Amino acid sequence: MRAGGSDPIREAARLLAERGNAVALTGAGISVESGIPSFRGSQGMWAKYDPMEYATLHAFLQSPRKVWEMLSEMVSVCGGAMPNAAHKGLAALEGMGVVRAVITQNVDGLHQAAGSRRVIEYHGNLDELICVYCWKRYLMRERWTPGAVPLCDCGEILKPNVVLFGESIPWLAQEQAEEEARTCGVLLVVGTSAQVSPACDIPGIAKDAGAAVVEINPEETSLSGNVTDIHLRGSASEVIGKMVRLFQDPNMKSPKD
Ligand code: APR
Question: Is 164 within 8 Å of 39 (Cβ atoms)?
Answer without folding.
Answer: no
